[in-house]
Design goal:
Blueprint: E1 11-15, E2 26-30, H1 34-44, E3 51-53, E4 59-61, H2 67-80, E5 81-84, E6 87-88, E7 91-92, H3 97-101, H4 105-120
Antiparallel strand pairs: 1-2, 2-5, 3-4, 6-7
Length: about 150
Amino acid sequence: MAKTTFTRRKIYKLVWPEGAELEGLEVRAKAIPFRAYLVIAALLDGDAPDTHEDDDGAVYDFKDNPDSQFEYVIKKFAEALVDWNLVEDDEPVPADEKGIWSQDRELVLITIRAWIDALASVSRPLAQPSPAGEPLAGVSIPMETLSESPES
């Protein structure tokens, strides 16, 4: 049997429903390494580690320099951002770190939260449906009253 290889290049498409503040915005962003995801999720949930060393050797002092939290999140989102249909003054906003920093806080935070939520989601059903709490067939735990311990 020949060896096969698998390369995962997951790209998430973020869209907002009709009536949402960002209705019409479409963002495509890649998945990021799990470690980076965990750090960003902790930062967004207000549970930042004191420091973090990134894969490129950059050290972020989240405790003593809270601004570095935003720098890290924006850097990672910019690395993941493939494209978006965002325009300003009839000009496309670059899908890069400079373009992200040029936008208002609310748009950036809503977009990043949607991206992190997409990363956290399971995109396909599990192979086998759950038995919904039913006991496994043929498996039971014997139940009997234990004799009293002579030491008690």
